[in-house]
Amino acid sequence: MNIRIARQLAEIGAPGAVIGVLAGAVVGALAGIVGQPLGWALTGAVMLAVPLAIVGGCYGVLTGLGHAKPGMFTPAAVLWLVGFPLSRLWHETMTPVVLGGPATPPDDVVTFLLYQALVSMGFAIGFIWLYERIIPGWLAQIKDHNPYAERVYARYIAHAEQMWNLREQRRARRQAGHAPGQLGPPGGTTKVRAKRSS
Fold this sequence. Notes:
The chain has helices spanning about 5-35, 40-65, 75-100, 110-140, 145-175. It is mainly α and about 200 residues long. It has one domain (about 5-175). Helix 1 runs antiparallel to helix 2 (about 40-65), helix 1 (about 5-35) crosses helix 4 (about 110-140) and helix 4 (about 110-140) packs across helix 5. The longest helix has about 35 residues, at about 110-140. About 30% of the residues are buried.
């Protein structure tokens, strides 16, 4: 892999990396709100933001290489099922080291990782939701000089056209089934029962 390809893949991975950094910043802000010292909160934010940014960037690279289809939840869920627990383990263990203390891994690493794997599903949902709102605009800006972005952007355009066509077909079926002035169910007749006079 040459430098040009690495730069192009890094470019397409940038939105996922930004989301990872934002997630780390949110964790730092929450730590500050609950009363952690400012230095601890900022260090913790950075220590979590870096691995989350790497995993988020990897998702963008996977889509650029064609290993993950844009808009599908499963690839993101699998990636975060592995990446989120490892990021949290790094965050938990290494934050005290940066602050001058010893490494503090959780007492029960297996239970910790299993719990973080459960949390990762919610994180993956939020990640893919935000990613799908950021990435099309980013791809439109870089597709002219980035063939990976151009390929992924073409998939988004094809998907959007497919969804538009399906919506138009449904609308046409509804309009054909209920023509103006028609009473009752489409294609049927309205039966009127006459009352018998006694």
